[in-house]
Amino acid sequence: MDYQMEELIPIVSELAQKYANYESTSITYEKAQSFMEAVLYCLKEYQNSNTDSLVQSHISVKEQYDIGVKRLFEKVEEIRVIFNEISLKFEDFGVKSLYDTVQKGIPQFLKWYDIRFCPQNTLLTLDYPLLIDCGSLSGADAVHKYIQAVQTEQIFLTALDKDYVVSVLEKYDPNYQDMIENICSIVLTDMIGHIAIKKSLQDAEFLTDDYMRLSKTFGQRPVSDIEHIVEGVIKEIVDRFFGSDGKMLTYLCCETNNIAVRIHTANQYGNLSRVFR
After folding, report:
1. For residues 244 and 53, what is the distance between their CA atoms, to the nearest angstrom?
2. Where does residue 157 fall: left (phi above 0), alpha (psi -120 to 50 degrees), or beta otherwise?
């Protein structure tokens, strides 16, 4: 929805007065620009939570802004609730980037996030990578999407035997504690290798016969066909461990193409041990 400058200026002006505690209306150009970004961010928040254009047309811009601010307060509270829930049994498996981003970063966000005057500022770099991309988002929108994904990953990882997860990470990288990679992807890939050839997860090491069976399973197929196989195995994993959890399936399938491309490339060169270790 497009807004006219004359509709936005009064809201920015009111924000500037509140910022200066109504003592002065003199602010820098940079600060005024930041306030304009804050107002637009809150209006976008309103738009994203109200898709009915007819409803929007009957609500003033100031009312839309106020609703957007209210929605941000609610979203920050949702972030707080999710963080508190996952912190009760948070497991980082010794991965420093995961611990630092979630257990150190999220509390700092909750402490310093400024809904009124700078909601567009994410505050965190969100260094630990996910299976989804939050790069197009900022502020509470980015952190909200991020913490929801972390919660899904925690449900996935903590449902598995911890010794199994650690052994997979150690095979992937003996110094895995210092890596900045998504551990969910690493474990998921290993599970796909096992389940694709009906090999027990407790039988950790892939042998020569296993690689031959994996090569036959995926064959000299195009990436699209391998994606279909991988997606089917992920569905089997979700059905087995998570009772057909649709949210879990959707999240894990975000990695389908990446895993399929790696399998296809490795199989082309007879080197599946680079994918399944």
Report:
1. 35
2. alpha
The 10 Å Cβ neighbour count of residue 105 is: 19
Pair of tokens at residue 121: 């500022």
Query: Do the beta carbons of residue 154 and residue 86 sit within 8 Å?
Result: yes
User: Which residues 6+ apart lie within 8 Å of 44 measured at CB?
Assistant: 68
Exposed (0-12), middle (13-18) or buried (19+): which is 126, by Cβ within 10 Å? buried
Task: List, in order, residues 6 or more apart from 135 with CB less than 8 Å away.
Answer: none
Distance CA 176, CA 83 (A): 24
Half-sphere exposure of 60 (CA within 13 A, CB side): 8
Token code pair at residue 228 = 């279909």
Long-range contacts formed by 218-226: CB under 8 A, 24+ apart: 218/263, 218/264, 218/267, 219/267, 220/267, 220/268, 221/264, 222/264, 223/257, 223/260, 223/261, 223/264, 224/260, 226/260, 226/263, 226/264
pLDDT, tens digit only, all 277 positions of the chain: 688 999 999 999 999 999 987 666 678 889 999 999 999 999 999 999 876 655 566 899 999 999 999 999 999 999 999 999 999 999 999 999 999 999 999 999 999 999 999 999 999 999 999 999 999 999 999 999 999 999 999 999 999 999 999 999 999 999 999 999 999 999 999 999 999 999 999 998 999 999 999 999 998 899 999 999 999 999 999 999 998 899 999 999 999 999 999 999 999 999 999 999 9
For tokens 């998921």, the residue is: 188
Tell me 104's DSSP state: I
> Residue 127 in 3-state DSSP?
coil
Q: Cα angle vertex 247, ends 277, 264, to 5°?
A: 35
